[in-house]
User: Which sequence fits this backbone?
């Protein structure tokens, strides 16, 4: 097995784990943002309806108090007609808001259903990812046994590890920079260590 294959397998294993983690986090965050947005809209509409109803009640009370005073019959009838028109508008607004609330509830139900479906898919995707990772780890262990190379993860983008020779109990540490060495130089260096 060449170092090229080992490097590709290691890169594949890391990329698979990274992509799965990012995808799950992205999906969960999108669902949570959508639920929060809908909840905010629902609360805003509810607050508007409550404020509108309070204002209407205050107007009705004020109109009732004013109507207690004696006023000409025509003015009283005009006021009652205006109040009836306003009442109709308020009822229309309430009906409209109730319809909007029902629509928002439908959207929330759909989101919850989608969230449940996503939650159901996550264990299967984790299982598949775990299988792929297990296969990659098994292959890496096989290569480690063949070459006696043990890789050490680091954040410096360096190829780091050590080669152990059981017959001499010798441990040779290496740290190679792919930015400074060619692929051929890295392979030659590792074969010399194994050699």
Assistant:
């Amino acid at each position: 097995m060449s170092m090229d294959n080992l490097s590709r397998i290691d890169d594949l294993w890391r990329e698979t784990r990274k992509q799965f983690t990012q995808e799950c986090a992205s999906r969960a965050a999108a669902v949570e943002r959508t639920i929060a947005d809908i909840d905010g809209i629902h609360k805003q509409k509810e607050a508007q309806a409550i404020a509108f109803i309070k204002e209407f009640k205050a107007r009705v009370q004020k109109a009732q108090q004013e109507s207690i005073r004696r006023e000409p019959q025509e003015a009283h009838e005009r006021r009652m007609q205006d109040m009836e028109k306003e009442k109709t508008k308020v009822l229309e607004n309430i009906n409209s808001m109730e319809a909007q609330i029902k629509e928002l509830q439908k959207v929330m139900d759909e989101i919850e259903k989608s969230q449940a479906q996503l939650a159901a898919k996550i264990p299967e995707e984790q299982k598949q990812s775990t299988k792929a990772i297990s296969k990659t780890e098994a292959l890496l262990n096989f290569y480690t046994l063949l070459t006696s190379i043990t890789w050490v993860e680091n954040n410096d983008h360096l190829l780091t590890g050590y080669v152990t020779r059981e017959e001499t109990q010798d441990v040779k540490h290496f740290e190679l920079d792919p930015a400074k060495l060619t692929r051929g130089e890295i392979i030659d260096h590792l074969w010399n260590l194994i050699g």
